[in-house]
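Blackboard transcription, Thursday session:
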Amino acid sequence: MIKVYTSSVIDAPAEAVWARVRDFNGLPQWTPFVVESRIEERQPPDRIGCVRNFRLRDGGVIRERLLALSDYDYQCSYSILESPMGVENYVATLKLTPITDGNRTFAEWWAEFDCAPEREAALAEQIGHGVFQAAFDSLKKAFAR
Amino acid sequence: MIDAPIEEVWAVLRDFNSHSAWHPAVGPSTMENGEPPDQVGCVRDFILKDGSHIREQLLALSDRDYVSTYCILEASLPMRNYVATVQLKRVTDGDRTFWHWESTFDAPRGRERELEELVGGGVYEAGFTGLAAYLRRDGRALSHPHAVDAPRAVDSEGIVATSFGGPDVLQRRRVDAPAPKSGEVRLRQTAVGVNYIDVYIRTGLYRMVEPPAAIGMEAAGVVVESNAPGFRPGDRVAYACTPPGAYVTMRTLPATQLVGLPDYVSDETAAALMLKGMTAECLLHRTHRVKPGDVVLVHAAAGGVGLLLCQWASALGARVVGTVSSEAKAELARAAGCEHPIVTRSYAFAEKTKQLSGGRGADVIYDGLGHQAAQENLAALAMRGHWVSHGHATGILEPVNLSGKSGTFSQPVLFHYTAEFLRQIAGHVFAALRDGILKADVRHRYPLGAAGDAHRDLEARRTTGQIVLLP
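(Written on the board underneath:)
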C-alpha cells in the first residue's frame, strides 16, 4: 500500500473553495485534465454511493465511487472502480481546512493504493503532480484575487 | 453495542429517513423536496410522538467510515447549534457493532442538565434500544408473517356496487382480504371515509371499477398481519389510494400505500381527512402555490374538501371567496376562513367574485363543479389566473378557450402526486392538523351497512363537512 500526499494553499475562503470542489461531477470545471464527466444512473452528485464516469484529455476513462462527503469538515473520499492506471484498492480523500490568518484555504489531497513495486515511483509522480498538484494549480488560478 | 453485523446496522442508519421505523419517539418523517435520504444536504422533516416538529439536515455521510453527521435546522426545543454525529465501529470479536452517538449544542443557562438528559436518554438511549429491537423484529417479520388476532383465511365483508347506478346498487357482500404477500399488510379497518369520487365511481362517470366491486378510496385501521418491514401488528395506519375498495371491514394492501398515524390523529379524523386533506395540500401547495394576497375562489366551500381549502388558504394569507348552496352552509364556510361566501343554487357567482375582489377576479379557482359552472368560472377568472379543475359534480368539463384571460388550466389527479410524495404530503397534512390550521369536521357517521344512505344524503346536498362509515 503506497500513500501519495499533496497539499497546497489556495488564496480564497474555504467555503468558496468547498462550494467549487464538492460537486463530484465537477472535475471538468476545476481540473485541466478532465474533459467530460457524468454521474451514472442520473444520480445527484452528492448522493453517497454515486459513481462518476469521466474522460481524461488523453482519452482514458475512469470510474470512481463517492464514499463519503462532509459539508461539515469540507472533505470527500472516493474509490477507483476502473481506470487505465493499473492501481488496486485505490481510495483518495480531498480535504480543505480554513486558514484563519488571511482567510485562505489549506488544501490536502491524498490517495492510498496498491500497485506493482516497479511502478510506484512513476505513479506517485503521475498522481501527486500530474493530478493533485495540477488541480490545485488550476484552483489557485481560478481564485486569484 | 448492537448484536448485529456492522453492514446490517449501517444499511439502516445510513438512510436518513429510517428513524420513524425504529426510533420510539419519532412519528411520521418525510424527506423534503423528494431528495434521497443519502444525499448530503438533504433535510428530514418529522414530528415526534409528543407533537413537536423538527427539521434536520444531513451534513456528512461516509460509507467508508460508517459516520453520519447532521444538524438541527428547526425545533421547538431551546437548543442552538445542535450538531450530532453517529459513528459505527466493527467489533470483530462476535461480529457485533459499536454504536457511538454524540452531539454538541448550546443550551439556555440552567437548562443544560435537563436537555442533556433529554438528548442522552430520550433520544440516544431510546434510539439504541429501538434500533436493536427493529433489527431483530425486522428479521422475524420477513421470515414468518406475524398475526395477532386474526386467523390465516379471513372473512371480510364490505359494500359492493353491484352495477353502475344510484345508491340502491350498493349492497353488503362478502369481500376477500387475502393473506398479505411480500410487501403487503392486512388491516382491520376502524373508519372509512366517504368522498364525492365514490359517487362518480358508483355511477360509472369515472370508470375505475367493473361491477360487482367494492368502492371507497380511504380508510384508517390497525395492522393485524404484516409481510412488510416497518409495519407491525398493532400499528395504527391509514391510506387514500387506488384501486377503490375501502368500504370493507378488513383489507390487504401494499405497505407503500400506508401511512403511520401520529398519536394526535384519531382513526376517524384520518379516515375523514386523508384523501381530502392530501387533495387540499396538493391543490394549495403543488398544483398552484397560494401566496398571501391571492384571491382564491373555492366552490362547494362547505363541502369536505371545500372546508379544508378555506381553512388552509386563509392560513396562507389568501382572500377566500366561496360558493355554497344555502345560508347555513355560508355560515360554516365563513367560520372556516371563507371571507366572502356566495349563496347560489344556480352557479351564478362571477359578478360577485369580481365585486368582492375589487374587479380583479380570482387568481386561482378550485373548481369541483365542472360543466354547469364553466361560463361563470371563465368570467370569474382573473387575468393570468389559474383554473384548477379537481371535480365534476355537475358534469364533465369541456375544453375552454382561455386566451381572453391568458389563463392556465390544470387537471390534477391526487394519485399522480402521492405516487412520488405520499409521506411528504401526508406529513404536511398531519402537521397542519397538529398546528390547528386544519380541523376535521365529521358531522355524519353511518354504519358501514348504511353506505347507500350516506350517498343519498351526499348527493342531495344534505351534508356538510366530512362523512365516515364505521365498520
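Lecturer's comment: The first helix of chain B runs from residue 6 to 13.
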